[in-house]
Specification:
Radius of gyration: 21 Å
Strand content: 15-25%
Largest sheet: 9 strands, mixed
Number of helices: 13
Shape: globular
Low-confidence stretches: 417-428
Distance between the termini: 46 Å
Mean pLDDT: 93
Structural class: alpha/beta
């Protein structure tokens, strides 16, 4: 681990603890590729790696640095499934295709683990994830969901009562847990940098500090930057919440949502394991949820307090510390050594928005807070489709997505009002 960490990133514990990737040169002049990729996050890098391994010449354009956006700042929890419930997918697609998508999410998780192992990515993977209720209605909902997942999706989960949970989690706040041993957590920026190293080794060309200003579709799509262009047979758009006007039709269907994470000072192995004895990831069942896990150097990483406006909440550090101390009163006064945030992209129905803008222009967005494993699946399915096998990506493309109401000016205040209702619901019911 570098003492200085990865430079060129917003300050975070992830950036401070990551093994740096040598800077990749900005794009200069006109270049030609089989496939051009916009965005060097999980989706773009996974697609680029798969395509390069299949023999394609691939060029990736990144506005900042590899993993600079959500891929390098997220909570690190890799969870089977998507940002919406399976019942939502059933309503959108029917039971058979909803089951197909769930099985694909399991495949995406297996592929995530496989990429880590195959490419020797040292991203500190840990098994285990617990979804924890705070209220009786949440207990009932989680237990009903467990039965459905076992009976209809062949996905058994474990129910832990309060006593069983307390054996693993040093908090009295929760009423039990649904435990999923197939999900887990990792160091997100290290994973992104590991994917980039694997892609570079496979022959992918990555240009950092090369923001795309304009794209032109057609027989050979073109990505234009301030100092060059890439012309290709196929284009992959993987910018998610950071498209900045490049693809307005896509941007209208997602909302950037701020999410925030704090890292405590190093607690030491014994104190850290008194908080989460089995090193699992945890998130609660509220709409405005808290989520947390341990780092490999024995810190608590605590996330929550999502912002549905474009600004961080006032008094963020104090708010986050109070939320952490509510879960772990034994950490009162410990505080955070690092505190950072970033954007995730949500869709109106929280379902993934993956498909085509044109016959040779592919995209994936709308991971809605569940992108660590699903984004890699999206990249893999896009690579398959470019290779001529589009059936699995087409299942996602059949999901109907509507733009957020109000356009650029009004969609944020409308969503803020809606989220205020959900926070009130968390508090009262």
């Amino acid at each position: 681990m570098s003492r200085d960490g990865a430079s060129g990133y917003p300050p975070s514990w992830y950036a401070a603890s990551a093994t740096p990737l040598p800077a990749q040169p900005p794009l200069r002049g006109a270049q030609r590729a089989d496939v051009a990729v916009l965005g060097a996050g999980y989706t773009g890098l996974t697609a680029a790696l798969a395509l390069a391994e299949a023999g394609h010449r691939v060029i990736v354009l990144e506005a900042e640095r590899v993993g600079w956006g959500a891929s390098g700042r997220n909570g690190g929890q890799a969870i089977v499934g998507y940002g919406c419930e399976q019942s939502t997918l059933e309503g959108l697609l029917g039971e058979a295709e909803a089951r197909m998508l769930f099985d694909l999410s399991r495949e995406g998780m297996a592929n995530l683990r496989g990429r880590i192992a195959r490419h020797g990515i040292d991203c500190h993977w840990r098994d285990g994830y617990a979804h924890v209720p705070l209220k009786p209605r949440q207990v009932r909902a989680l237990q009903a969901d467990m039965v459905e997942m076992a009976e209809r999706y062949d996905y058994p989960l474990q129910w832990w009562d309060r006593e069983q949970l307390r054996a693993h989690l040093g908090s009295d706040l929760y009423l039990g847990a649904v435990y999923d041993g197939a999900s887990g957590h990792l160091h997100p920026l290290e994973y992104a940098l590991g994917l980039a190293r694997a892609a570079l080794a496979a022959g992918v060309v990555i240009h950092e500090h090369s923001p795309v200003q304009r794209l032109v579709t057609g027989t050979q799509p073109v990505l234009h930057t301030a100092h060059g262009e890439v012309r290709a047979d196929f284009l992959v758009i993987a910018g998610n919440a950071w498209l900045h006007g490049v693809a307005p039709a896509l941007e209208a269907r997602i909302m950037p949502v701020g999410t925030y994470i704090g890292a405590t000072p190093v607690l030491g192995a014994e104190r850290a394991r008194s908080l989460i004895g089995n090193d699992m990831a945890v998130s609660d069942a509220n709409w405005a949820l808290d989520y947390f896990r341990l780092s490999h150097d024995h810190r608590l990483l605590f996330g929550g307090r999502a912002s549905y406006s474009s600004l961080p909440p006032p008094g963020l550090r104090g708010l986050m510390q109070r939320r952490m101390e509510r879960v772990f009163p034994q950490l009162r006064g410990v505080g955070f050594e690092y505190l950072w945030g970033g954007y995730v992209d949500i869709t109106r129905n929280r379902a993934p928005d993956w498909g085509r803008l044109a016959d040779n222009v592919y995209y994936a967005q709308g991971f809605s807070g569940h992108g660590v494993a699903a984004s890699g699946l999206a990249g893999q399915l896009i690579a398959e489709a470019i290779g001529g096998q589009s059936r699995r990506l087409d299942a996602f493309a059949r999901i109907a997505h509507r733009p957020f109401p109000g356009g650029r000016m009004l969609r944020t205040p409308l969503l803020v009002a809606a989220m205020s209702w959900y926070r009130l619901r968390d508090a009262l019911w």
